[in-house]
Amino acid sequence: MTPPPPGSVLDWVRHARWLTAGRAALYGGVLAVLPAAYLAVALLRMAGEAGHEVRGIDFAGFYSAAQLALEGRPEAAWDRAVHAAAHGGSLEGSYFIFVYPPIFLLYCLPFALLPFAAAYFTWLGLTAAACIAALAAYRAAPWWVVALLVILAPGAVQNVANGQNAFLTAAIFAAAGLVLDRRPGVAGTLFAALCYKPQFGLMVLPALLAARRWRVVAAGAVALVALVLLTIAVLGPGAWQAFIAGTATAVGVVEDGGVPFWQMQSVFGVLTALG
Predict the structure, then answer these.
(1) CB 46, CB 117: distance < 8 Å
(2) What value does the mean pLDDT take over residues 151-163?
């Protein structure tokens, strides 16, 4: 293939000689201003709540579901009316449905022992630290650079504003990649821990099978069964029955716009948002 002539637009884009380290740092700093401001507003909003629950964020759904489980009613997390009432919302108002399988409810349980604001900051602090540590272990950049990239990425800022689980998901993915060659059993167990988002199985499992990572797949299958049995032991079989029974309702809520379409990273979400 003939290389583009010097000075052409294609040559300018391909080699990017103009993008020096100093300019990259400057452009990155400028682009970080808006996410940093949004992040500050989100954190100040939560800090100003003085322990009161903010109903309009996803973490409120996690927290209320875990509280119901601590009360001995884990199956109520998938009862929309009961779950909405548990965090002061309503089916017509500010309310985030809990659609996760019982394994994620198990992850949320310890945080329901804390007041809401403390639980929110602890959840984000621990998952962000895990994400930064896992990504920094790849040694692609100094840890503080990784931390800035993680915290000020637009998606990460949205995660903080809503108390979502993206830091946890990224941390598990990154950790699994680190040990994939050296500790296939650990990697498989980590991939199984991602089962609170079952759609990732459609992405991870075919890749592992294509790469013939049999030990990783086997370890993941064993770990998944163990996690299911653990949730049954801790929460009871009713939690799984309620989750399965509520799947159709959850799908209907998503299709009817119960989750804003612009928040969905999918072809379905994009096309629906565009009308």
Answers:
(1) yes
(2) 88
